[in-house]
Amino acid sequence: MYLDPDVSHAVKILIVGHFGVGKTTCIGSLSEIEPLRTEEEITEASVGFDDLSGTPDKKTTTVAMDFGRLTLSDTLVLYLFGTPGQERFKEMWEELSRGALGALVLVDPERLHESFPVLDLVERFGLTYAIAVNHFDGTTNYPLDEVREALNLTAETPVVECDVRDENSSAQALITLVKHLMSQLG
Question: Hey, what's the signal peptide range on this chain (predicted)?
Answer without folding.
Answer: none
